[in-house]
């Protein structure tokens, strides 16, 4: 991977619907930081309004490939941003999902992409806030399995994992900003 502007591009990750990354992203945006929403949710919304062929619970490979394309576009859009930019899941998660679906190593999917900030902030599964809806259909058991895959993959890709404490969103945002200082 190349270095590019990745030093200030920070990944927030965790299991779908069970860690609070979207709420955390909104908190960071409210503090004036650049943010990029999760591509997966946008894809699911589009698919539910269309043919539904690239839903993660229908065709994980097709979904992951679309997420990689969308996340690449999102990253290019903010490439010249100044300061921290926080990504809700995105490119790394999509490459890891594609690896899970096909066996294609995430490092291959990420080849040629700029490395993100070395710290990846991971929200652990939090049963008390886990939500399923029409766009997030993953149950908590599958979310926990995904969380463990993410831990292994981020480590293998050379990122330093920072597990976020289960606290109110404001305290989590403070924790991240303190870790980045």
From TrEMBL:
InterPro entries documented for this protein: NadR/Ttd14_AAA_dom (IPR038727), P-loop_NTPase (IPR027417)
Pfam family, one: AAA_28
Domain NadR/Ttd14 AAA, residue spans: 10-172
Protein name stated in the entry: NadR/Ttd14 AAA domain-containing protein
Organism, as annotated: Pseudooceanicola marinus
